Every structure is written in structure tokens, then in C-alpha cells.
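Major facilitator superfamily (MFS) profile domain-containing protein: C-alpha cells wanted.
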Amino acid sequence: MEKNAISTVPVPVPPGNIDSQVAQVLHTETTPEEEKRVLRKIDLHIIPVMGLCYMLQYMDKVTLGYATQLNLQSDLHLHGSEYSWCSSVFYFGYMFWSWPSSYISVRFPIGKYLGVSVALWGVVLTTHATCSNFGGLLTARFLLGVTEAAVAPGFSLITGMFYKTREQPSRMALWFLGNAVANVVSGLIAYGIGRIDSHIAAWKLLFIILGIVTVAYGVFLVFVLPDSPARAWFLTDAERKIALHRTVENRTGVMDEGEFRVEQMVDALTDPQAWLLVGYSVAQNIPNGGFSSNQFSSIIINGFGFSELNSLLLSAPGGLLQIAAIGGICWASTYVKKSRIITMIVVILFALVGVILMNALPDSNRWGRWVGIFLLGPFATSIPISLSLITSNVGGFTKKATVSAMLFLAYCTGNIIGPQLFLDSEAPKYTTGLKGVLAGFALAIFFLVLLYIYYEVENRRRDRKHGPSSPDDTEEFLNLTDRQIPSFRYIL
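Answer:
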């Protein structure tokens, strides 16, 4: 056989629910050079597309914080806790749509669904400019949460379909890089729009411009984001077989047959790892909701004695540290064994130091306190690693979608709680809010330590009961859960 040839030998369909065409992938013979070529094509066509979308999502989500520095609160006559509720209600919408979104992601082409969702969120973002009171803004923020709910869980599912287990953390970190880039450029964009001389209020221009860009990008996604390796438009038929064959070793399910399996949903709801991830996500996102997502951080920086526009600029450097942290995550996940959970703990410890600096330093030391905010930058990078734990450690397509929905419900819960701790009466110091941030980080570390211990204990139990892991390639296409596969071992 020639070196670059691909052999697909007809074989009987293995027992279980396996499509006969997909079963041929089990006997596809590939070379390392072919796999590398296909991986490069996947990276080139998927990662930049998802990264740009994630950048837009972050920018669109935090426009409320920047709009506040451009007089949104005074123009809409927001008082008391109304601004906090406008921050929190976004996550009520996100939570409301998480479960329906997980069902739709299984039943319909996921690439098309995500593209439509992005276009709709762009439309909703544009309508923010028409709001004239608290009720209107509250409604717009809720609908924005609904339309954005599909993106991160959907990207996680796509990453799990296209990449090997060991490749997933670095790829998730790369598309999450869009979040860090947005952290840098969104403040600069808001600053530039704030200096435009127009009869339209600057905060309205911010929503209109970003909304139109997002609608256009959503339409683009409908045509370019693939639904699965078997339907990737940028791969040839032979390359699609290689793409499927590459991920056989994952044993977490390449695709489903459009069937939502109730038994897998029950498996998810009774799995200890799922609930430990939920606990982590709630705790981690208490700080995220109120502080590091810029809903209140630019206000706090303004309280250090900087002007409104300069506060927008000073929100940007934290993103640079986040970019550096993502580089470290990519390196660690590639070269260091059992590094995922430990890396998550390390970046949260950085943020913990930052909060302590903000609390401990006197008001006169405004640059020292700003360094505290700067150190908060990396902690959000633990979020894509937690998503990679789902794609690597949760088997079964329906179970994976269910656990993703559980994680994002927890994400919403933390983000709802967070803004409510930032009391209007305590602005701009927000003493209660900073204490809540500190507690959230401490609890997140606690749940991660428990998760690490659970994975270690479970892997050792399986080794004792079943012996060393000996993968059966057919398991990847049987759509079994991680608890149904004796050879499955959890990635730490």
C-alpha cells in the first residue's frame, strides 16, 4: 500500500447502535503525516472562527459596563439596585435557555443553530439603543442572555467532536483567547466611541455598532461552522474519515444520531463529577458576574480617582495578563501530565492575591489597588479548562450536552449572585462585593480539590477492578457514557 493511501476495508457492523458508514472508520488506515495535515485544516477553519465569535460575545456582554461610563445610568434614570438587576437578568435569560439549547444542539445541526443564535443576539444587542427606561433595558438584557446561551456549550461540543482528548484544553484555550483579546480591545473601542461627536448618545452608538457587526458574523457562521467531522465542508471525503478516525481514542462519542437519550440525561444527573463541576462553576462565577466581566470593574477603577474615559482604558491591561495565562495553559496541557485541575487552581490563586491587595491597600495607593484588578485577569482562563474536563471526561453525546447545560446553569447562578453583592450604597468601593469575590474564589478551589481527589480515586478503582485501560475502538461509536465503559479513565 502507498504511504499516503487510505484504506477503508468493509467490515461487519459492530454490535450496538452504530451507523454502517461510520463503522468503516474503525478500519481506516492513516499515517501521522495525513493526520497532521487534517489537524492543520481543522485548526485553520474552526479555531479562528470560534475565537472571533467568542471575542464578540465577551464584548457584547460587557457593553453594559462600558455604557455606564458613557452616561447610560443617568440617561435611563437607573437608581438603587436597578443597574445590578440589569447585570443579573442577563444570566436569567442564559439560564432559561440552557436546557432547551442542549436539546436543540443534539436534535439539529449544531453549526447552523449557533450561527442563527449569534445573528439573533446581534439583533437584540442593537435594540439596546432604543431603551429609554429600566424596564426596557431589563427586557433587552434578558433576551441577550437567551440568544447567547448556545455559544459556549456549543463550541465545547464541537471541540469534543473534532479533537483528541489531549488536544482539547489547548484548543479551548485558543478559542477562549477571543475573550482575552476582547478584554484588551473592548475598552479601547468604548473609549474611541466615547470621543465621537454625534447627536446620538455614545452609549447608544456602542450598542448599535457592535450589534450590526454581530448580526453579520452570525450569518457568516451559518455557512462556515461545521456540524460534525462527517459534514465538514472544508474536508474531502477521505479527510473526513481521517478526522473521525483521529478521535476514536477519546471514547466520549463523536456524534449522535439526532436522538436525545433520557438514560444518558439520568446518568449525568447522578454523576458526582457533574455536581462537583457545578459547585465549582457557581463559586467561580460569583466573582465573574459582579467584577471581572467589567460590569463593575470600570466603576471601581473610576472610584480610584481616574476619569470615566481613562477608566475604560485601564480596564484593558488585565486582558494582556489573561493572554499570557492562556499561553501557559496551552503549554501545560500539552507537556505536563495531570495539569488541568492544578492549572485552574493556580490561576484562581493569582486572582485571590489581587482581591487581597484591593482590600488591604489604603485608598491613597490607587496604582497598587489597580494592580489588584490587573491580577484578576487570568482567573477566567480556568473556565475553558473546566469545559475541556467535560469534553474529555464525559462520555455519551446526550450526557455531554446535559452536563454542559448543568455547568452553564451553575455559571448563570454564580453570575446572578455576583452583581447583587455589589451594593449601590457601597459604590465605588463595594466592600461586600469584594468579600463575596474572595469567598467565591476560596470555594472554587475547594471544589476543584475534591474533583481532583474523585478522579484519582475512581481511576484507581477501575484499575483494580478491570486492570489497565485497554481501549476498544468500537466504543467511540456505541455512544456509551463514561460510566458504561470499563476502559475509560478520567483526565486530571
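The two ends are 39 Å apart (CA to CA). Residues 1-20 have pLDDT under 50 and may be disordered.

Cheers.
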